[in-house]
């Protein structure tokens, strides 16, 4: 971009501390960390919003027959790849995890490139892992500060293979859609901007100026800015996320759905009215110090493997761990720490031993039974308090810091044991065993993930978690508090940066003051409402900054129908995914840098930043030379779009922010509390903590207190043949990215189209292991059916089944959402299961081949 009078190259006051970009001499000593500060933490959640809803009824898509109606498949191909079953594993990680990490890194990135990326991942002078948001240690970090899935993500990002224009000339969209999701990802890094023009069935090369011209013409040609949807992936760092919401609001809309709408929206909606902050309150060191850890609706061995190291430390310090999950997961059973293989004293014992026992009490709850389970534990605790007054409930904390205790207490005491046992599937005696671990302890942490938040009662269950912690005084002190474990690397940071469809007035006022425009105040669409609006033809442009909404969202064929109705779809990404293939009339596929890539701009080597699950903001500075091509950074793409679209209407210096990301951070420092002196604090090794009121017993609720909740425990009757489905990840995937067809911890090899079933449920339906089955979901009289899954007997509560996403996502109805948060209920889908009707020789032969 040309020099302008406002560029930091010509006006140093426009920049932050450009001369310190990467300058170690000016950085604090290793291990130093700034205090959290006193500024109020940004809290972008409202628990009782006047939410914008699309009320028109949209009929269920014909999921089973969609493959015959559209040449481009929205669902993964049905072809089976050869299931092999083994016993599920009882120990997570170990030497196999080390070998798998090396295998993926060297096969995709090459030995030199792949190893260099691994050794710089999650280091204080390196880049942030692009997979999960588990925090890094404040002080010492291992040479290998990564897990198996982080290594897979790094390998995918550092892939030396290229999916360039020639690849897309060779393969039509229809042909690409018949590839597996794994093979699409393995096609290589996107290298050049591409366009699918009206009527075309291929992507072809396009120059960046025309890209921005197409976007600007479509956006400026709409009847209203609200006809555009701007979606964000949780992989996007803070700086481009801030610019993305800034552009959308300068353009005139709050339509900013993001993946948080589908995961921890329920957490924020439950925490905000109870503690005053929609984020967790603990640090990594608190995990190490806890006396009791309760892990609910989470599988850390697959989804957050580095958490196992923290749990191992806690166990060595004497902690007791209660695990609550419908499935028995290896990572919640035993853990062999791969880091111990580098210690000569520990190596042999680690290799031959059984690992660290993680769980002391395992409660195999029924799907959606977590609230009842929590009530059972608290009912036992109140009984213990009656026998031991003042020794179980922290009366001093309750009286000084909380409100609503008596109403909450009566709500628990009046809940019958019959309801608790029926809904949770856990006996009164088992719940007493868990309660006895908690009764005399005060350093208690509850960790949870989407197994809680994607239930129908996800928000209410989060409130019940807070109730348990409040009655024990287990918040706002070392070793105690709330721990919602976020999924993608910067999904929490994106919300902090303003990626939300319902930002508070205070944030919008700060934007107006900083950038000189009046932001729109009408609430925008979240993910579910965006899909509905798109499907009804109320929108014309869908812009996706990373991510794969088609595979991540509910009701896959509904999303596909919505995308096909758009005049323009824009996808920014690093690698090809299925979501890029289901397009609007015109579609743009734009290549960008990964976290591991060196981002060189006019001011030099740029860094971005991410916020982890525990509110630490740290730098992300790439170390790999990008694959040869014509990629732009996310910042440059957003700024190019803004310049072309807004033209003379904007007062924002988009050029300066493209040339030097310090300029972006200077703006953020003036807009968002907690980011004062952003450029300076970010350069300290390890970054800095954002303010966190509940961590210090400062509850910024409306009444200034932590609030107990009186929740409602609901029963949902099923028909005799119905089951409840939850979707989960395999061990060889992260979010929607599929690395392989295996899930070795659960004993699955060579296949993803599987349904885990209780053996008794299989017998009731005359289904045998490896039989082909069809699955139908039922919601308000509508049905959605997927075909040709493989039945797998598994240790799961009777009446419950489980399958992988995205394969099972077509079963999740768009209208089935958690109350208040509007999060799709991927952890509660009512289904029936029948044997697949085998009506022709082809199906018979395929089944025989699979069985062999």
Automatic annotation (TrEMBL):
Superkingdom classification of source: Bacteria
Keyword annotations of the record: 4Fe-4S, Iron, Iron-sulfur, Metal-binding, Molybdenum, Oxidoreductase
Residues covered by region (Disordered): 1-55
InterPro entries: Asp_de-COase-like_dom_sf, MopB_CT_YdeP, MoPterin_dinucl-bd_dom, Mopterin_OxRdtase, Mopterin_OxRdtse_a_bac, Prok_molybdopt-oxidoreductase, YdeP_MopB
Domain Molybdopterin oxidoreductase: 189-570
Protein family according to the UniProt entry: Belongs to the prokaryotic molybdopterin-containing oxidoreductase family.
Name of the protein this chain belongs to: FdhF/YdeP family oxidoreductase
Annotated source species: Hymenobacter negativus
